[in-house]
């Protein structure tokens, strides 16, 4: 008997621009992670800060084409560059706007929607009785 495969994980590192209150941009790394074990969310990690945000995958997808999000997370088109999006994260401790390439977010989301390849069968499925049994598979 073969074991069930574990959850599929898609991890996508990005270098984004962080905008502060003075509109000064700093490039910072983030890591977007999606797991088939919890398919409705994306974890956005800030490795240098040891901070993670949990964001709805559908919210990110909706933000590709139009402003999305009303609470602590929003995704908006960049008004100056249609190839970029602004991801806004708000908490009681502060707010940050991150500029990221639209194409990278779209590619990440496509990777989370493609079903994993089924495992390949090795050999033929055969009954212990050989060709004498009429098994329906």
From TrEMBL:
Main location: other
Top-level lineage group: Bacteria
Entry keyword set: Cell cycle, Cell division, Septation, Sporulation
Region (Disordered): 115-137
Record localization: Cell septum
Pfam hit, one: SsgA
Family: Belongs to the SsgA family.
Protein name as annotated: SsgA family sporulation/cell division regulator
Organism of derivation: Pseudonocardia eucalypti
Taxonomy of the source species: Bacteria, Bacillati, Actinomycetota, Actinomycetes, Pseudonocardiales
